[in-house]
TrEMBL record:
Keywords: Cell membrane, Membrane, Transmembrane, Transmembrane helix. This is Putative oxidoreductase. GO terms for cellular component: plasma membrane. Pfam families: DoxX. Belongs to the DoxX family. It is a multi-pass membrane protein.
């Protein structure tokens, strides 16, 4: 089997792996904010605060991304959340992401934007709903 054929056969599966790992990492941010696990400095935020709302999006959105359910609209929403988070919380500190702590927000933003365009991949509930498991 040549490299092109191997890449073509594994590309959709690796899209699913990227989606699942991204969702798990994102979900961890929400569980930290809302559930206190892993513990974070400052305790749990008020649920009706901006950080509390971000935690809800991260926990619920991350779970939906892991499952591959409603992936395109959820990923688009989360991409926007990460863009807002970057410009509100990180960019004012420094123009350099490595210095302002915003490199994860930028990476999440663009991975979610890619998932909004590419979809969930074959290992997802979206694929199952379309009968393509």
């Amino acid at each position: 089997m040549n490299l092109t054929a191997l890449a073509a056969s594994w590309s959709p599966r690796l899209l699913s792996v990227l989606r699942i790992m991204t969702g798990l990492l994102f979900l961890a941010h929400g569980s930290q904010k809302l559930l206190g696990f892993p513990p974070r400095a400052g305790g749990a935020p008020e649920l009706l605060s901006l950080i509390g709302f971000a935690g809800v999006l991260e926990l619920v959105g991350g779970a939906l991304i892991v499952l591959g359910l409603f992936t395109r609209p959820v990923a688009f929403l989360l991409s926007g959340q990460m863009a807002v988070a970057y410009f509100m919380a990180h960019a004012p500190k420094s123009p350099f992401p490595a210095l302002n702590g915003g490199d994860a927000a930028i990476l999440f933003c663009f991975v979610f934007l890619y998932l909004a365009a590419a979809g969930a991949g074959p290992w997802s509930l979206d694929a199952g709903r379309r009968g393509r498991f």
